[in-house]
Amino acid sequence: MNAQTPTVSDPQSRLPNLSHRHKAAIVVKLLISEGFPLALDRLSEDEQIALTHAIGEMNRIDQTTLHEVIKEFATELNALALTFSGGVDGALNLLEGKIAPQAAERIRREASVGKTLDPWDHIRRVDPNRLLPLLEDESVEVGAVILSKLPIKSAAELLGQLPGERARRITFAVSQTGMVTPEAVARIGASVIEELDEAPTLAFDTPPVDRIGAILNSSPASTREDVLDGLLETDPEFAEDVRRTIFTFANLPTRVDPKDVPKITRDVDAAILVTALAAALSDDGADTPAAEFLLENISQRMAGQLRDEIGERGKVKKTEGEAAMTAVIDALRTLEETGEITLISPDEDDEDG
After folding, report:
1. Residue 249 banded pLDDT, cuts 50, 70, 90
2. Whole-model pTM above 0.70?
3. Which of 146, 140, 188 is nearest to 165 (CA)?
4. Of residues 274 and 346, more confidently modeled
5. Is there a contact between 310 and 324 (Cβ–Cβ < 8 Å)?
6. ∠191-193-196 over CA atoms, to 5°?
7. Which domains are assigned to the chain?
8. What are the backbone angles phi and psi of residue 117, rounded to the nearest 5°?
9. Which of 62, 297, 312, 342 can pair with 258 through a Cys bridge, CB separation 3.0 to 4.6 Å?
């Protein structure tokens, strides 16, 4: 037995000769031998190194010493009333949903800069679009590290938004990251956090054009057209962007895949669907092709039944018709949000035309 190995030959002095590190090594070795899963990666790097050295220093432990160590461990465990673990990250997980998201974000940001948290844990929680300017402006080497530390899906989305030449240069730089040290990656992460911190926190998650488009989607047609006409006079480019985000009943034939029509009609109350179709067919205007589009892409039996009910429905008040058509679009939007259908983008439609 070498000088580093704890001496456990004297039954009366077994435990006094064992440090806390070596007792921990015994407990860990026993638990691993019994097949218990241990999350040792939750220890700090220094603690993991110290534990590994302690295990390496151990030799043979007799049955009596083992029992005494386990008895002491169990006694100390039973004496614990409450434990706190995980540092700042553990505290944030504990308080998730109990504190404001802005406060949690600020704590993560400050902890990352102060090196009490891995900065990349915070960066991975950031909206990937906030990282796009960094990928465009920073060196390709920094961009390569950023992409390498992000989830694959986020990295792929960002790479797809970069200009072709820039994307190729960063991709090549990723191939050269094999010798980058953990310290360098941590410094880059801290630098990214500081740059993100300098950007102002935005009050709205969506851009103005999307917010206005969503409002106008649910507005009466007369209001929608009046607002768009006003925007065209003051800012034609913005008005066109808004118009492209608007999805109305009249847009159904150009934005919906015919095979998805049954999913939409199934999710709309039958009476509301009849009202929407009756209103669209009665004015022989912009909404009529959309009504025919829906009827042509469902079963003939159901289409015939709906046409009979439309005939019985009679004239529909304008406000009732608009409300019913909005309900159809709301159902469609819900299906899109849940991933059950995918809309054809205006750009695709323009290209096909």
Report:
1. very high
2. no
3. 140
4. 274
5. no
6. 110
7. 11-79 (no CATH), 97-198 (1.10.220.30), 204-246 (1.20.5), 248-352 (1.10.220.30)
8. -130, 155
9. 297
